[in-house]
Amino acid sequence: MLEVLKSLALMNASRKVVKVSSKELAERIGQSLQTAARKLKELEEEGLIDRTLTRDGQFVVITEKGKQVLYREYMDYRKIFEGEESIKIRGEVFSGVGEGRYYVSLEGYREQFKKKLGFDPYPGTLNLRIPKEEMYFRRRLDEENGILIEGFKTEDRTFGEVKAFRCRIDGVEGAVVIPKRTHYPSEILEVIAPTRLRDKLGIRDGDMVEVEVLL
């Protein structure tokens, strides 16, 4: 399906609604008409495109979810050809109010962390307060797409989207997580990992740590 999504993006479907015929798409991907039609349907079912069928033809636009898929592919190729890009952010360890443990433990998030980040996170976050001199790099994360962790609904409430960035602290692998819509102040950085970072790194409130964030 990625090949079809890429072809649609090259037709400008990531920026606007475009009219697409299955025949034209089939020629672009070198597949049969039936295969092209089937893959369009699969992309729609996966929520990677929005498709509208009318008497005049079918109109397609790539969704934000679809753009994230393309962006991850783009970042993978960047790593292959350009090497890994990263930034380093220093922050002061402080204790939160336990919200991190609650959110990380939610299955709607946890399963996506396991699938998209490659590890089962310890139920809790390492909270870092970023000093003013480091805020340029903290704001840089707000501008990057990161890895999309989709929002979900339960019987009681709705949980919003989160974006994640793989990271390292003293060689320990983890991920920075940032709610896409949040009331948290921007100088706060939360890190998850497969282990309790305070114990693994021997750190406590007031300590300064450096996080290498992979973009």
What features would you highlight for this structure?
215 residues, alpha+beta, Arc Repressor Mutant, subunit A, Elongation Factor Tu (Ef-tu), domain 3, 2 domains, 6-stranded antiparallel barrel, 3-stranded antiparallel beta sheet, 8 helices, 12 strands, elongated
The CATH architecture of the largest domain can be given as: Beta Barrel
Structural class: alpha+beta
CATH topology of the largest domain: Elongation Factor Tu (Ef-tu), domain 3
CATH class of the largest domain: Mainly Beta
Question: pLDDT under 50 segments (min length 5)?
Answer: none
Please, how many domains? 2
Count of alpha and pi helical runs = 8
Mean pLDDT: 92
Major β-sheet annotation: 6 strands, antiparallel, barrel
Superfamily (CATH H level) name of the largest domain: Riboflavin kinase-like
Q: Calculate the terminal CA-CA distance, rounded to whole Å.
A: 25 Å
Q: Your description of this structure?
A:
It is built from eight helices and twelve strands. It has 215 residues and is α+β, with helices and mostly antiparallel strands. The mean pLDDT is 92. The two termini are 25 Å apart. It has a six-stranded antiparallel beta barrel with strand order 4-5-11-10-9-12. Strand 9 and strand 10 form a beta hairpin. Helix 2 packs across helix 3. The chain has helices at 2-10, 22-29, 33-45, 64-82, 99-105, 107-117, 135-143, 197-201; strands at 18-20, 49-54, 57-62, 86-94, 126-129, 147-149, 152-153, 158-159, 162-169, 172-179, 188-192, 208-214. The protein has two domains: 2-73, Winged helix-like DNA-binding domain superfamily/Winged helix DNA-binding domain (Arc Repressor Mutant, subunit A, Orthogonal Bundle), CATH 1.10.10.10; 86-214, Elongation Factor Tu (Ef-tu), domain 3, CATH 2.40.30.30. 26% of the residues are buried.
